[in-house]
């Protein structure tokens, strides 16, 4: 019930008392039915309280589910949709991209354009899988980022984490209790039985593609039984994937998708047992059916209101989130902060953990020619390399331009540093002039976002003591 201001409350009380006195002195000739109390003044009923609770749970559950829903969008296209251009061939197979991303690639929003991607999904229900990597030449950066259905980064293999040497590693699903097999360098346990690797291999120049291909082709995936040369266990049941529909996934029907995905997160993390019991009150549970048409209008309205509340909370959080610090990592790192997990997925699905890569960025309008100026002592602090990549808004895909330049950084051919050792980059729809085009990142004639990435960031960047300089308009020359 809404609380009213004190003056209004007193006035209302006076009005209510006055007719009672009049009835004692001058009883009315006939009785009349009292008007029904308005929703704002009537006492809350048990049903009101039930729907208010459903709304609160729906808000919490949608925020919890958001990153998983974005992840499922990729999973459905890459594993369950052979006709999709993003299809990788099903579970247990690498699909390697040996060239840089272009505006035609829509596998994921805000794609990294520095390192060609290799994608693979594993189904760990029947048994663990072994990933084998080749020896990678020193000076060549690569990383295998392993992500679970929650979008937690649960394992890293590569230049920073394990070095550039050859080796085999075990990816194990929830509940696997085996010993580390001979020849396996490390076992990486996952909380979910469906997992993804987004592998990145640095491409140093267009003429470097053959070297990247050789490294990619040396990466192997095989079930543990195949690696050990033992009989395979019984196959897991076939998965019936619900078709991904973005509109439904971000409405009350998010519950249907969440229930499907929760089947592959069993057993439930002990930290979430109470949360799952609460979610069950609105029909959320592993493998449970969800039919919105079977709900009462009041219950459906409560869930819809909760989804709207969640989207509003995410919008507020997004406005205040200006860097990647704290957005991506393991469950232990994120400490079950589901709102932060959701914002990470919204701003850059499959972002690396901070120790692997630092992210920051800008939002601008290409109709204004802008610049980013790094002083000599504040250049991006990268152990491996750094870049700034531009995306058109609102789709967050690479922007098509005549230069075919989608990112710029310390490996960009012809990049010109200032006379004092600093660096000035230009972003805009119009060229900054021929003498500055080597440092120009073309933008649409409208809104864009530009994402800075620092691979192997310094401690100063990780701890927030280094940040990108501001995006500033290029001064107009004085006539």
Automatic annotation (TrEMBL):
Comp. bias regions, Low complexity: 27-46
Statement: the UniProt record of this protein carries the keyword Signal: yes
Keyword Transferase included in the entry's annotation: no
Position of the signal peptide: 1-23
Residue span, DUF1214 domain: 366-458
A Pfam family per the record: DUF1254
UniProt-listed InterPro entries: DUF1214, DUF1214_C_sf, DUF1254, DUF1254_sf
Sequence ranges assigned to domain DUF1254 in this UniProt record: 92-223
Residue segments, region Disordered: 24-51
Keywords: Signal
UniProt-listed PANTHER family: BLL3101 PROTEIN
Protein name in the entry: DUF1254 domain-containing protein
Organism listed in the record: Stenotrophomonas rhizophila
């Amino acid at each position: 019930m809404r609380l009213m201001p004190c003056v209004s409350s007193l006035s209302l009380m006076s009005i209510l008392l006055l007719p009672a006195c009049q009835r004692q002195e001058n009883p009315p000739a006939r009785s009349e039915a009292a008007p029904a109390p308005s929703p704002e003044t009537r006492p809350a009923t048990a049903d009101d309280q039930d729907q208010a609770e459903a709304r609160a749970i729906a808000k919490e559950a949608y925020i919890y589910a958001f990153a998983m829903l974005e992840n499922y969008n990729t999973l459905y296209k890459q594993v369950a949709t052979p006709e999709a251009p993003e299809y990788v061939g099903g579970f247990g197979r690498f699909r390697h991209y040996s060239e840089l991303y272009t505006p035609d690639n829509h596998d994921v929003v805000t794609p990294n354009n520095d390192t060609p991607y290799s994608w693979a999904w594993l189904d760990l229900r029947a048994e663990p899988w072994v990933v084998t990597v080749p020896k990678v030449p020193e000076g060549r950066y690569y990383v295998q980022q392993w992500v679970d259905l929650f979008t937690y980064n649960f394992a890293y293999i590569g230049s920073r984490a394990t070095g550039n040497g050859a080796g085999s590693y075990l990816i194990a699903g929830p509940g696997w209790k085996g010993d580390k097999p001979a020849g396996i360098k490390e076992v990486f346990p996952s909380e979910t039985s469906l997992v993804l690797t987004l592998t990145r291999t640095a491409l140093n120049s267009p003429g470097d593609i053959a070297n990247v291909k050789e490294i990619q082709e040396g990466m192997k995936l095989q079930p543990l039984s195949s690696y050990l040369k033992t009989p395979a266990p019984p196959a897991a049941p076939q998965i019936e994937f619900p078709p991904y529909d973005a509109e439904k996934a971000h409405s009350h029907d998010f519950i249907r998708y969440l229930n499907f995905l929760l089947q592959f997160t069993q057993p439930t993390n002990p930290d979430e047992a109470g949360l799952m019991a609460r979610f069950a009150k609105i029909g959320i549970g592993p493998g449970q059916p969800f039919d919105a048409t079977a709900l009462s209008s009041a219950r459906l309205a409560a869930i819809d209101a909760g989804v709207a509340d969640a989207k509003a909370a995410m919008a507020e959080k997004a406005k205040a989130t200006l860097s990647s610090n704290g957005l991506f990592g393991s469950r232990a790192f994120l400490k079950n902060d589901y709102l932060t997990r959701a914002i990470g997925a919204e701003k850059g699905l499959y972002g690396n953990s901070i120790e692997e890569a630092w992210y920051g960025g800008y939002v601008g309008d290409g109709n204004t020619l802008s610049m980013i100026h790094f002083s000599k002592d504040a250049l991006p602090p990268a152990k491996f390399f750094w870049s700034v990549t531009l995306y058109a808004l609102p789709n967050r895909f690479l922007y098509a331009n005549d230069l075919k330049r989608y990112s710029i950084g310390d490996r960009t051919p012809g990049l010109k540093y200032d006379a004092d050792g600093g660096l000035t980059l230009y972003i805009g729809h119009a060229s900054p002039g021929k003498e500055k085009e080597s440092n120009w990142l073309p933008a649409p004639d409208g809104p864009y976002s530009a994402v800075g990435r620092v691979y192997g960031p310094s401690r100063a960047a990780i701890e927030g003591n280094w940040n990108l300089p501001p995006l500033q308009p290029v001064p107009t020359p004085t006539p």
